[in-house]
Amino acid sequence: MGYISDALLRKYAELIVRTGANVQKDQVVQLTVSVEQHQFAGMLMEECYKTGAKKVNVDWTYDIQSRLNYLYADQETLSTVLPWEEEKMKQMVQDLPVRIFIASEDPDALSGIASEKLSAVTRARSRVIKPYRNAIEGKHQWVIAAYPSVKWARKCFPDLTDEEAISRLWKAILKTVRVREDNDPVAEWKAHTDFIEKKAAWLNRQGFVSMRYHSGNGTDFTVDLIPEAAWEGAGVTNSTNGAFYIPNMPTEEIFTSPRAGMCEGTLVAVKPLSWNSQLIEDFSITFHQGKAVSCKAKKGQALLEKMIHMDEGACMLGEVALVPKESPVNQCGFLFYETLFDENACCHCALGMGFKEVLPQGNDLTMEQAQQRGINDSMIHVDFMVGADDLSIDGIKQDGTVIPIFRNGTWAK
Ligand code: ZN
User: What is the pLDDT of residue 282?
Assistant: First the structure.
């Protein structure tokens, strides 16, 4: 605090709770936030109660706690999901709480920790956690929004002082979430989400069976779509209570899950990828019969290979997303080291888990059923940016008709 006015901060908290999470009367809220952001946590709690929340529970996080655990505790200990943790997840399946996550982590919090240890722990814990995550998928509201920490800001702006860096990051965050002293962010978000929904509806009417990507940097790629799968963007409706919520703030993307195992060619990344607190730079991934068969990175080659081999589905795509290059995140012109922002900069694809909710009545399907209908499954979901300034994307219909979707990195029309 201190970097922006309390009034502006309050406006932001209100936006997160009312437009983002859309907390309804008598809902339980689970807030996950760093201890460093305790004052903002208080503001969010108050907003939740003001909108009628029944109870707000806080899961406090602390970068140093995670780092020390990884440094000193052994792999087996860290991999074990204790009974009380599992009980908590069972409770979550029952309560279907609204979940609010405030991202503020130091992107380097876990740097220097062996990536083998990190991925082994993630893998082991995912095995236990994933069924619970699947059980609440689509049935509860959730939102991730950001709050700058000093370490995060310094990572983005290493040459600035702490104060200058935090100021710059705040400015960028507020720009991307459309919060200003003189505006009504709720109204701006309505117009923004309406635009995204209009574009998504157009894509859905086309019923494309595949898309072709091309750009001067070497991207030359074709991916099959699942014609009955929907393009989605901006908001989601909670199937249990009909509440419309916005999972990511900011959000610029329209996305769907492509047909797993059906893509061909090379995608060249246009921005570095931060994974497990480490950077993969200047990379490309080549696919054959839907699987990543080779990858090249100037930096982080081993890490990229590890990621692709995390499990059976990690080498296949779970998401394709369209983001015009005019995105305010892209206009900020720096890497946020945080997927929430970086994935909203330009067009991207994700390796790993797909979204079963894009299928008709997808939320009622088990992951196995969704897989049979073409949705990829994996413990990872990692976005990488392919939206070059000259990127063109064509949509191809069943009868072979080719319709331009993107030209020069933005909507063709
Ligand atoms: Zn995405």
Answer: 96
